[in-house]
Amino acid sequence: MRTTAHPYMANSVPAVKQVMLDAIGAASIEELFAQIPEGHRLRGGLPLPPSLASEIELSRHLRQTLARNETCEDNLSFLGAGCWQHHVPAICDEVVRRSEFVTPVWGTPSSDYGRNQAWFEFCSQLGELLDLDFVGLPVYSWGCAAGHAIRMAARMNGRREVLVPRSLDPERLAVIRTFCEPRETASHLTVTLVDFDPQTGRVDLDDLRAKLGGEVAAVYFETPSYLGTIERDAAEITRLAHDAGAEAIVGVDPISLGVLAPPPDYGADIAVGTIQPLGVHMNCGGGVGGFIASRDEERYAREYPTLNLSICDTVVPGERGFGIALFHQTSYGLREEGNDWTGNSTYLWSIAAATYMSLLGPKGFADLGELIVQRSHYAASLLDELDGVRVAWPGGFFKEFVVAFDGKTVADVNRGLRAHRIFGGKDLSRELPELGQSALYCVTEVHTKDDIERLVGALREVIAA
Amino acid sequence: MTHLRRYHAAVWDEPLVMELSREGRRGLIVPEAEAEVRERVGEAASLLPAGIRRSDRPALPELSEPDVLRHYLHLAQETLGMMGISLFGTCTMKYNPRLGEAIAARPELAELHPYQDEDTLQGVLEFVHGLDVILRGLSGLDQFVFQAGGGAHAAYTFACIARAYHAERGELGRRNEVVTTIQAHPCNGATAAAAGFKVVTLMLEEDGYPSVEALRAAVSDRTAALMVNNPDDMGIYNPHIDEWVRIVHEAGGLAFYDHANFNGVMAKIRARDLGFDACMYMLHKTFGVPKGGGGPAVGAFGCTAELARFLPSPVVIRDGDRFRLDADRPASVGKVREFWGNVPQVVKAYAWARAMGADGIDEASDLSVLANNYMERRLLEIPGLTRSNPQVDAYRMEMTRYSLGKLQEDTGVGVVDVQNRMADYGIDAPWLSHEPWIVPEPITPEAGEMWSKEDLDYWIDVLAQVCREAYDDPELVRSAPHDQVVHKLADTSLDDPDVWATTWRAYLRKRAATPVG
């Protein structure tokens, strides 16, 4: 038993405990647990590893264990696929590490006003990027945002099927399937896969037309797609969806929206996506967060499962406040009758994203998008020239593209690259076997021309070996 | 009574960032593509399909780098953010060790990609496994995963596992009901419903919880699962909980323990010992991880070996000295979220548990219950305040729900007014109650183990002062707050489509359509 007070617990001083016990009139702390029947009690202690109550020891232990990791800073990484290495401005880190943003739970609209304003600025700036007026507070991830949006559409039109591209990220597809429920439940939604054109990597419009029946609640697609391609027929996809009476839901990477058209330009009704690229570190996948946005129409707004923060007035004329709109329709308000559920989410990251969008501004997003497109195409064109390497769809992508290898497995290639301190692209060979030994490569603003050439040189060696 | 602090929030009258824009300013410069790159691939516009290129510039603000920094620092200062005393019940406001923040900021954690080769992730996998083992010890269960992004999401994870379990047995079509109680967090019923179940909600009875008979009547061969917390938010422990689990099991259902209120029973009881098949811990509450105003959070989900094959994939497995991600799990429910969880938060929780150790965790639950009962003695002396379930005379667990219904009857001052006024004395808003409000004007402080006796005394002194003000000068409290960033919100419905505006552009459009006044 420890005899000194624990640094996290002010009342662990024996004399303090005694004063409190005396005030209660109890003889022991044990007496206070009398509600729990003896038969329920754990006796004999917990099987836990030894404590490291001294920060001096604990810090050392944590750092030593972390040192067993290798990072994307010390290696050259081309991994993306839902979690991307973008530059995180120092100010984003400074802001999200402020205690006032790190530790609060909720507060009141008056006491935690500044954080609420930051949230509102997140929604407002994202709304500008998306060209959409209604933006909810963030959800857990892109996949969860897509799942919620599909359920929104099904509630709106009462239909029970959703079309999604077969090229969808299997990770995101698995999340969507979870949201759509198994066939045994009465509220099950059928997920139907729409093929992609092997020549272009884009949605196969004929297959889409064939599958767009009267039970389709929504067509969900992404641009850029999981495989990197930009859906140049996006307007046609949404038109077909609308003609069939379905909602058109699009998934977008907001960092692309300095150069790519915003969703309403091609007719999307609901936009979802990720916020991780906007100033959040990859955090081993723990940096993800998602958003849902739409036109500010009541029929959409009434179906949001998110908390929705509205600018409003205070009791003092001319003074602004921020309050929760449409609270009653959430599970906090209506329990199981609410729209899906609401809970803790990724709100801190929305402040990183607000900071990021303010830093970049309109020109920053345009410049960044252009740089990424140029560097990624540069990488693709050099790789495509290598013997035994082929870029599946060499034009019309944003930051990711599919690289196919002849004569070597992706596993072998990536193992070889690791000796060069390079993390190769994500292996697609198991999830999309028809693409052969293929990998998804990601090139962003953090990859210089020299980095790309280093990859090319290393690949040349690995493939020749 | 201690001297009440003078407090006033920082007021900057900080404009929205969009209003700080000045054309041409830059907060971040992006390098130009290298000459060789430009030469080889040409201009970006030529690389993007026409018709899908953005033709306008998004109306984002244009600011210099220091302007952005100062703006958001002003907003941070305009946030009380637990810098006061926060006894926000059900959320277990405890110390968030800054060592965890320092560790999470290191590139060995921040700059990891989840698809890196396992060889390069051994450190972080060791932490995930380490916390799994610690939670097994605390619960008696066999396997934990961290994919869920919050407590509600872990409840949803359970509902998905219950689906898979009954589907495998061919009974999902019939077993379409989940039983919960009115005192369980709304997320239990809500996530069960979102997973496709009907929800049966039991009401409280004389002892402060639903009776065994009520449960028996609700359970049948349609029951898929029980989702319940214990103790509840009023501080009452259901002594029949093991019998509840037995009844549900006998009917063929599963039992899920929502451990939202774990702080007072850590090291005292274990979910598995009471018969539960699965449980959930909120790392951002009980395990010292910060809340971030609403995440990133983690709902750690654990279950028995029998249910482990249904867990969301992947699961971190120890193989001798190595750790690996097991994604080859054919019976798995699949995924509830991309990747394997909010990994930095898992590492912070691991660090917290190591800093506390078994003795520290046991003592934390001792101190939580001690503090709550200490507070109760003093709080019940405040005129206008009463205790929920007054007929239950036992010591409460780590929190007690009180009612300011009498204060409101006597003075017209409601609990939201009290909450607002307490902030004027530097107190973070206390929790009231989830829907529905079973007691009138509820207020639910939870002391936890972090706050000192002096902090608790100060908090009580402030509430006593505010209640006194309510009797002496009710308008002072009704018009509160007075010393915050802004005043209380106008009594306007934000459910009106002509009024709500979740973005600045929507606000400008609606205000132009309906000018103020």
Describe the structure in your own words.
The complex is a heterodimer of chains A (about 475) and B (about 525). With about 475 residues, chain A is an alpha/beta fold. Chain A is built from 14 helices and 15 strands. Chain A starts with 13 loop residues before the first helix and ends with a helix. With about 525 residues, chain B is an alpha/beta fold. Chain B has a domain at about 100-355: 3-Layer(aba) Sandwich (Aspartate Aminotransferase, domain 2). In chain B, helix 8 (about 185-195) links the parallel strand 2 (about 175-180) and strand 3 (about 200). In chain B, helix 6 packs parallel to helix 11 and helix 7 packs across helix 8. The longest helix of chain B is centred in the C-terminal third of the chain and has 37 residues, at about 345-380. The chains are: A alpha/beta (about 475), B alpha/beta (about 525). Chains A and B meet through helix 1, helix 2, helix 3, helix 4 and helix 5 of A and helix 1, helix 2, helix 3, helix 4 and helix 5 of B.
